[in-house]
Every structure is written in structure tokens, then in C-alpha cells.
Amino acid sequence: MSEPSTQREFHDFTIRAVRATTVSVPLVAPLRHAAGAHWGRFVRTLVEVETADGLVGLGELGGGGESAAAAVRDLESYLVGHSPFDLEALRFKICNPTASLYNNRTQLHAAVEFACLDLIGLRIGVPVHDLLGGRVRDRVEFASYLFYRYADPATGSGEVRTVDQLVAHALELRARHGFRSHKLKGGVFEPGYEVECYRALAAALPGDTFRYDPNCALSLRQSMRVIDAIADVDNDYLEDPTWGMGGMRALRGKGPLLATNTLVVNFEQLAANVLAPAVDVILLDTTFWGGIRACVKAAGICETFQLPVAVHSSGELGIQLASMLHLGAVVPGLTFAADAHYHHLTDDVIAGGKLPYTDGAIEVPCGPGLGVRLDHDKVAEYAERYREEGGYPYDRDPGRPGWYPLVPNTDWADPTDETGVSW
């Protein structure tokens, strides 16, 4: 009996090689957050999965530097001979739930899954969103992502520390990109000062909506005071004000909707939140959840239980941004603008340069696969930059040597400090 034509067609469609390249892409200025800082650049690991017939699928994950690249390369023995179509088998091959007690590979799996979906789309000539059920929107709206920032050490520009600097920065981003929702990354300065900044944003941008994310840095009491202080702002939601399901459950219903990207990042946690609600909005991150498909599955559960969702950003170059766009394209209940760090980047590693914002949104790629390809000259440039600069500790602040945060935090940065950073 002859082999079916479809089997013959895909006979050579198996993985033969996996490559990983760590790059360092500059930011406009160093970004400060509750646990430390992005030190003027994003360090990301690019993943290329090549099939026996010569197609190359793209993935991406953050942090880790050479250790992340080595971890990806170590997966090659798991992947050689595996069909990119066999995505459920891939999930258990890499993220077996008992084996993962010893070696959590969730983010590695996400990068490989991006690449496999890219390969499938390239092989059959359709965009990833068609593999996920088809798009229900052609563009995904984004919120501005406002950070307190150190001045760029090379130019001395880009600082965001004062109320006036923050408002000016938000107005400039709105004018340039068209954002109508604005997210303030907090947990850096004392909560009362950050509330002052947040309220100033709302006053300067009437008609827009706002969200505040102190990355779990606040105590329960401080969180309650923040809720009272921003009650009259047009809030999208309050994101992760305090740590733990118990803390969030105590706050729920007292003010704005509560959102999380820390407490609900897998299906067990999602089930726990359905049974005993602690948060209202689930922020789906294609890396934290282990891939685009996991986020689509989670969105379906959220739809069933009427939990709103939004697309979360854990810091991205163009490959992961594409994964976020395809996710945003297929989720019917996406009623909030997505997050993205993307506008803080000065450049990208994808062909054609950075994807543009138009009226606060980015068009969903419609080419085969993820719809983006690598600019290999840019990859070489930023790989060399990584070799020269190395990585940086995400959970340390270059302007506060020896500091590290408690949860909840009790040691805030000083917004009047104009001394700058010794790099």
C-alpha cells in the first residue's frame, strides 16, 4: 500500500537542528522597576529551529544570556527528528510536569513552540493566527508602557523621575504613537509619590484610561490607600499591587478591577482563581504561560467564566511581539489594550526594522508563519554587542548598589536624587 500523499509531502518535515543566539539591543534609556532595572538594553535569546527540508522557524526568550542559549542548544537531542506538527508531544517532551519539578523549561518550550508554529505556517503557507482559529481583528491596540527611567549614560537624555518629566514623556508617546491607554510601572518610589504621578497623568490626558503596576511591592494597607487615592481615575485595572492570592482577594471589589501576570500564570493557578476569585483580569504572556497555544487555551477558560484577559509583555523583540500579535488577533474577549515594552527599543533584529504603531495599534502580520524574518546583519551586530557588554542582573538597580527589595518593599528610591548613576 502506498503512503498517503500528505504523509509523503511532509516526510522530511522534521527538526534537524536548533540554534540559539543571544543579542543585546539598546533601549532609549534604562528602565526602572520594583525589583531593579533594565540597564539600558534588552538581552534576548533568539531561537532558530531548522527542519530537514531547510525551513527555519523563529523563537525568542528573555534573559539568561549564554545560559539561556546553552539551555536551548541542550534541547537539540530532544528535538532532532521531531515533527513541528506534533505540538502536544512537544509539550510533554520538554515540559513533562513531574520532570519539570527538577528542570522547569516553560520559557524554553515557549520559544520552541513559537518556532514550530512559524514552521507550520511557512510550510503550508498560512499565518499563525489561521492555525489558532483565525483572526477576529486585524490590529491589536497597545497601551503606553511608562517607566521611571535613568538618563541614558551616553547622551544624558531620557530621564523620567519627576512628575513633569513623566507627564511630558506620556504626552510625547501619545503624540508619536497614538496610545489612548497608559500603564505606569511603579514600585520604585514611595507609593504616595507614585499616586501623585499617576493622578497627574490622568489630569494631563483627559478621555484616556490608565493602569498602575507596582509589581507586588505594596503592603495590603498601602494597596488600600492607593485604591482610595485613585478611585476617581478612569482605571483599566490595578495590576499586582500586593503579593499573594490572599492579599489580592482581600482587595478585590474594593476599587478598580485587579489584574495579574504573577499570580495566575498556569492552569492550576487559573483553576484556583476560578474557585476562589482573587483577581478579575488575567494577563496572558506568551512566554510565562509556555507558548501561544497555552494562552489561547487559557483565554477560552477565561471566556467561560467571564474573566477579562489582556496580552502581557515581559519585554520583547520583534519575534515575541509577533507571537503577542497573533495571540491578540484570535482572542475574542480582548477588551483591554495590550502591553508592550517595544517602543522603548531603539532598534530590532527583524527584517524591515521595528513594526510601526498607527493610532496606538500594530497590524497583525499576515505573511506565512509568524510573518517576521530575521535581519542577519542586525543579529550579528547585536550578538557582538552582547559579547562586548555581557548581561546584567534584572533584579538589581545600577543606581542603588547593594540594594534589593523586600516584598512588600520598605526601602524606596528617592525621587529628588539628581546624582545620576555610576555605571
Structural summary, described in words:
The chain is of the alpha/beta class and 423 residues long. The protein folds into two domains: 5-125 and 378-388, Enolase-like, N-terminal domain (Enolase-like, domain 1, 2-Layer Sandwich); 130-370, TIM Barrel (Alpha-Beta Barrel). It is built from 14 helices and 14 strands. Strands 3-2-7-8-9-10-11-12-13 form a nine-stranded mixed β-sheet. Strands 1-4-5 form a three-stranded antiparallel β-sheet. Helix 8 (191-204) links the parallel strand 8 and strand 9. The longest helix is centred in the first third of the chain and has 19 residues, at 106-124. The relative contact order is 0.16.
Keywords:
nine-stranded mixed sheet; Enolase-like, domain 1; three-stranded antiparallel sheet; 423 residues; Enolase_C-like; TIM Barrel; disordered N terminus; EC 4.2.1.40; Mandelate_racemase_N_dom; 2 domains
